[in-house]
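Hello K.,

You asked for the raw outputs rather than the summary table, so here they are, unedited. I folded two proteins back to back in the same session to keep the settings identical. This is the first:
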Amino acid sequence: MDRSGNLGRYVWFTALYNARAYYPVLAVLFLDLGLTLDQYVMLNLIWAGTIFLFEVPSGALADTFGRKKLLITASLLMVVEMCCLLFAPKDGGWLLFSFCVVNRILSGLSEAAASGADEALAYDSLPENDRESAWDAVLTKAMRVRSVGYVIAVILGGLLYDPTMVNRVLPSSWSISVDLAHRLPIALVLMQALACLVISLRMVEPKSVYHGSMREACGSAVKLTLFTAKWVFTNPATLVIVVIGMAIDCAVRNFATINSSYYRLIELPEWIFGFIGAALGLLGYVVPTIAAKLNKRYGTLANFGIIACVAMTGLVGVAVLDSRWGLIPAMLLMTTLGYLGFTISRALNREADSGRRATVLSVKGLAFNLAYGGFSLGFSLLLASLPQDSAGQTLRGALMWQVPFFAVSVFGLLWWGRGRLLRA
């Protein structure tokens, strides 16, 4: 039994931190502010690069200096990043792009600080007996609450982003402008950030942590980082988990960040974006149950194979379907992220010991974001190299090109992983 209350706080923290109201309109939000699609994809690269630099050091600091302190830092950074986006000048040219760059850097720092620290704090709050089964229950509950929160957030975000829908429920004297409506989802996430800050302040360190100076803590963190990174990439089980996981994640997550542009491509109205996100949230509510059963029945590599096949089906569907039927493979594709996240969390927490758990998870996060950043850069260059006659056709051409890339890289790595584990 968790007497610290950390498990309940972890569930609420992860739900409020991750279920952000602007997700269903993320791409069009930046585009409507005045950025181009190439600039938007480049911002994602900046975000991933920031995490690349700070992901593992923050995880090591969490293990040496305190997980709670890192979560407080992540919450404060989330507050500031939302303020940057809230006050970014529309069609502001270089000033707008500067605000967006600062937003992406702060977002990356926040993600790096929270990544691994929240899971590690919650996992170490469990009783030591039968932690793996207990963690399955906690993770399932957390993903379900996150899904419910996501449903509520994205419905509100999609509706708030559309001034027509907002003005229908407001008195005529209170009607709001398009620009103000586009800021409302951001304001909602700012309130979530403040709630995360309150929750993180109330968390309790489940074990003693380092209490020396920051300089000494940083020195210890560097040593722990190097030792843990070497262990992750030399231990066959963790190597296979991280390498195959990041190969699947980068392609699926790249599509998740441009999905609203895809919805415009297949001519879906903007007001429905939030309801699509809500439907994904409802699917996300049942995904943890399915993932838990499949992970108990099959090994990690077999589950990766199932995820790869489902993701491949989705990628082919969004590339070849040019009507609203493309929504079905798009939703199928994005549900794989929850299944993948559950599988990796379960496998890595099983392999890692308590003293370096947050660092191991941060090494994983670093590898994933490095792969995502590289994929985003390649996707951006691909968009720029294709004929620019039609933005929709350019995006469709890029989606078509990623199918063979995914097939060769992921299924090749599955074959490699099987042989690597057999040799080990």
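The second followed immediately with the same parameters:
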Amino acid sequence: MVISNADIEATTRYIADQTKEPEGRQPDWMKTDRGDFQAVWLIVETDGRIRGQLRFRVHPHALEFPSISLIFRGNNVMRIDLVPPDECEPNPIQAARLGLPATVCGPHVHRWEDNRSLVKSSGVWELPVRAPVTSPIRSIEQMFLWFCGEVGIQLRPEHRRFVEPPKDLLSGIE
């Protein structure tokens, strides 16, 4: 698959745009076919266009380890994963050129700027390069605030609180 320069540049501009914000109130959590929970929050731009969304995921038995992705035009363009500190993943060789470690343990982020050249050269819209998150993030709410700052999403006071799936949704989960 060929990913055009226009697609790469549009994604870079979208992330750099500091005027986008979540649309409406916090979305409801829904159980997926895979057994985890997901919430999708549309992102509106100042001109009213909606080309992106935040996608939140959490496993019912690991609520303390959520994931948030920024999706633009149907592609994952940035993601943060809160994982246990002893969970380690290897980085591709290209990460060394960016000054990133060969192995990343604990919370990490898959930044667009770290993965942009790989997406373009491979023709595959994946984000294999990860960087450690050094901020002390301990909850989905802290993660949400940090992530929005990283991707230029402006938050009004009513957007600043993001909560995990409600306990009644989780009832009956084995």
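The first strand starts at residue 21 and ends at 22.

Happy to rerun anything if the numbers look odd on your end.

Regards,
P.
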